[in-house]
Amino acid sequence: MAERDFIRALMAPLAGSAAARGLADDAAVWTPPLGRQLVLTHDTMAAGVHFLASDPPGDVGWKLVAVNASDLAAMGARPAGALLSVALGTGQDADWQAGFARGLGQALDAFGLALWGGDTVSGVAAPVLGMTVVGHVEAGRALGRGGAQPGDRLWVSGTIGDAGLGLAMAQGLAPMQPWLLKRLRRPMPRLALGAALVGVASACMDVSDGLLIDAERLAAASSVGLAIDLDAVPLSEAARAAGLSAIEAVVSGDDYELLFTAPADAVVSAGACCIGSVVRGAGLALNADGHAVPLPARRGWEHAL
Ligand SMILES: Nc1ncnc2c1ncn2[C@@H]1O[C@H](COP(=O)(O)OP(=O)(O)O)[C@@H](O)[C@H]1O
Ligand SMILES: Cc1ncc(C[n+]2csc(CCOP(=O)(O)OP(=O)(O)O)c2C)c(N)n1
Ligand SMILES: [Mg+2]
Ligand SMILES: [Mg+2]
Ligand SMILES: [Mg+2]
Predict the structure, then answer these.
(1) What is the extent of the structural domain holding 179?
(2) ipTM score here?
(3) Any idea which positions bind substrate (predicted)?
(4) What is the CATH number of the domain that holds 239?
(5) Other CB atoms within 10 A of residue 105 CB
(6) Cα(230)–Cα(218) distance, rounded to whole angstroms?
(7) Which ranges in 112-245 belong to alpha helices (H)?
(8) pLDDT of 215-254, one tens digit each?
């Protein structure tokens, strides 16, 4: 398919907002809501690194939107629009492209994002997808990683470790369980929770690389320590049945849950679990069954450059 046909046939139908101008101009033109601050983020997904080239293309499209929306959720932002970068190889034929567009469109709809534009290239050895998303918050109210105070409690949404098990399944290393595979391939960013945490959470981030490595980042940004009770880390029924332990769950990554702190007297919405507290000092202290647990050497995913 020619680049212009890809844009006309697959992308333009997803780009119905006035801001996108039918993808017929050189750029989008968007009017931000009065008095709101823009929140902007970008995440990349590369074949072999973030997904398998053999994954269903609709799932790849969904996940690209979801991981970006998750960073908006972490900031307490309301989603507005997205710019998409597509670099494809010969393995991504017309069927793959149509499937990708379908999953992408489903996620844009699900998370309230308009497709505003992007860029398309071919000829790369392995597909690489990038997305910039734009959201907005009430001015001065964006959440961040930096506000945790000693005495606050530490919370996490949903369940942790499901996607890591899903990855082992996708790689053929564990018996297939559709619900866990779905947790890897169709993550549900916690947009409603993030928005509800504005004015409640003292610090917030999403968990993409692993709960421990991400908690270390929150602790460092807030200049505090975090005491984490491994027994309190929420595991799904499916993960327990698969034999997952908490110490495995907290380093597995791809969770796209929210990790946040709030004052001890704050009313935290349902769907989150208290897993510890904010303390003076630095770094993480792990506990299980009332005993200190040494920090594992590998605490999550980090790209080596
Ligand atoms: N290549 C880059 N150039 C500029 N900023 C970057 C780059 N990579 C990451 N960042 C910024 O660094 C911060 C942390 O990025 P990252 O670890 O990717 O966050 P997340 O895990 O939430 O996606 C973000 O504010 C992001 O915008
Ligand atoms: C094929 C494959 N291998 C490994 C993983 C696991 N994985 C790779 S990178 C990563 C962390 C998230 O990616 P990153 O680029 O750091 O996203 P960000 O934290 O910036 O949102 C995880 C969990 C995967 N999802 N797919
Ligand atoms: Mg990122
Ligand atoms: Mg993030
Ligand atoms: Mg991210």
Answers:
(1) 153-293
(2) 0.96
(3) 50, 254, 301
(4) 3.90.650.10
(5) 20
(6) 17
(7) 162-170, 178-185, 191-196, 211-222, 237-241
(8) 999 999 999 999 999 999 999 999 999 999 999 999 999 9
User: Do 162 and 121 reside in the same domain of the chain?
Assistant: no
Asked if residue 132 is part of any domain, the answer here is yes
Domain assignment present for residue 143? The answer is no
Q: Kindly report, residue by residue over 61-98, the tens digit of the pLDDT.
A: 999 999 999 999 999 999 999 999 999 999 999 999 99
Contact 278, 149 (CB under 8 A): yes
Separation between Cα atoms, residue 228 and residue 287, nearest integer Å: 6
Residue 15 maps to which CATH number?
3.30.1330.10
Q: Is 208 in the pocket of ligand 1 (CB under 6 A)?
A: yes
Q: Are 148 and 204 in contact (CB under 8 A)?
A: no
Q: Which residues pair with 84 in a beta bridge?
A: 118, 131
The mean per-residue pLDDT over the stretch 203-213 comes to 99
Average the pLDDT over 163-172 and give the result: 97
Length of the chain: 305
92 lines ligand 2 (CB under 6 A): no
Check whether 269 has a pLDDT greater than 90: no
Residue 41 CA: which ligand 1 atom is closest?
27
Longest dimension (CA), the chain: 62
Helix (H, G, I), strand (E, B) or coil at 280: coil
* 127: its two tokens: 């597909």
Query: What would the mean pLDDT of 130-141 be, rounded to a whole number?
Result: 98
Question: Hey, whose CA ends up nearest to atom 25 of ligand 1?
Answer: 41
284: confidence class by pLDDT, cuts 50, 70, 90: very high
34-43 confidence digits (pLDDT tens): 999 999 999 9
